[in-house]
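Board notes (copied after class):
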Amino acid sequence: MTFLTIGHRGVMGVEPENTLRSFVRAEHEGMDVIELDLHLSKDGALVVMHDADVDRTTDGKGPIGDFTLAELRELDAGEGERIPVFEEVVDAVKAPLQAEIKDTAAARALAEVLTGRDLLDRVDVLSFHDEALAEIRTLLPTARTALVASRYGLDVIDRAHAVGAGMLVLNIRRVTLELVVERAHAAGLRVIGWTVNTPDQLKLVRGLRLDGATTDFPEIRRAARFTA
């Protein structure tokens, strides 16, 4: 199967992360898939941000859940960009998406949009949180899901199966061929590595026979075509 290059929060190494500008650039650069993060605003909108608060990536301060969508729209998310909602990203780019959710409330909101917009074939749902993926599986039994993990052991394979995930998205600092990748593949799971930002890291994940790489930089997409 084709090795995938996945744009991390768009292409956050060269554009403001999780903004429409970053997502459009990722598509222009030919990323196979675009990854983004979702939180709920105070009034229930699926806003695209990584952190639980707005401090790092905007000129505001405080938890996302304390702001209405209208209030979030007033913040500068970098170079004049505004915080988008998930539906706007769906409309702005045509590429497949990976949507990372943080909790079961976001899972329920996302499930409603995926159903209403007929997006199940285009969007993979990711989470570090088993219960969020289990909620998606309950609401949308045919959804494609992936378990994300930073610190993990072989139990991550059993965890993925327990919540019906078909893919693992793993921190490359802990990935090993024999102990993780081969066993995951034998268990029917695809394995994506993050974050792959250098030629050496790209060679590592190709050598480990991973199925794809999440990267901040568009040049990794170009390099991946020549790295086997």
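Comment from the instructor: Residues 10 and 23 are 4 Å apart (CA to CA). The chain has a mean pLDDT of 96.
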